[in-house]
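for the writeup, i need someone to sanity check this before i put it in the appendix. the sequnce is what the collaborator sent (i think, or maybe the updated version? ugh). structure was predicted straight from it, no edits. if anything looks off just tell me and ill rerun, i have time this weekend
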Amino acid sequence: MIRVDNISKTFDGKAVLTDISATFDEGRANLIIGRSGSGKTVLLKCLIGMFEPDSGDVWYDANRFTELDSDQQRTFRQQMGVVFQGGALFDSLTVEQNVRLPMDFFTSWNRNEKKDRVNFCLEKVTLPGVNRLFPAELSGGMKKRVAIARAIALNPRYLFCDEPNSGLDPQTAIVIDKLIREITVDFNITTVINTHDMNSVMEIGDHILFLSDGAKCWEGSNNEILTSGNKVLNDFVFASELMKRFK
């Protein structure tokens, strides 16, 4: 479980996040949604320690993450897996080397142990046998799946995904959504996903936090979103669906 209490963050005197509180439960797909500039990415970066909030706290279960020093946070991050927007694979490394990277940095496993874990993770994302390929030889959807394999390499308790469906066609996006959901449930991970994709919201949105202008505007499940009665949320949902039709 991750909890944020009254998080606020400013840049150059401009409020980007204002007094946000929310709880993200384990074994669930927790989605942060909102228009571009609503504060989604800043909140995610506060959660993983890339940004320090001006006020408020981030809790991981009973651990107050915001009071840990940089070395303690670095150690704690070994429990986190992150899927960056675009995948962020290293082009000069093979698929196996990309997935193995967290193991090389954070474990003392021997070569065979790392190899077995790489193969397990690639099997989990339905990409067996691609170990020796380079990112340039992969499709966009395959790159995202390799990025997910790397994110779960250390068997994390917490998984963060920043726009995992960005740049993907709708059919491939559905595959990625189902994969993230499956991993979340199978490993009982606390998963937090930044997205503006309404398909993701409706398919896997166990818990949804809607941000508008840096503030929490609505919170609920995908079953509640269409009957929320929240005008700002309804405008966002309608605009998202309208834009999708014109693509």
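The longest strand covers residues 14-24. Residues 39 and 214 are 5 Å apart (CA to CA).
thx in advance!!
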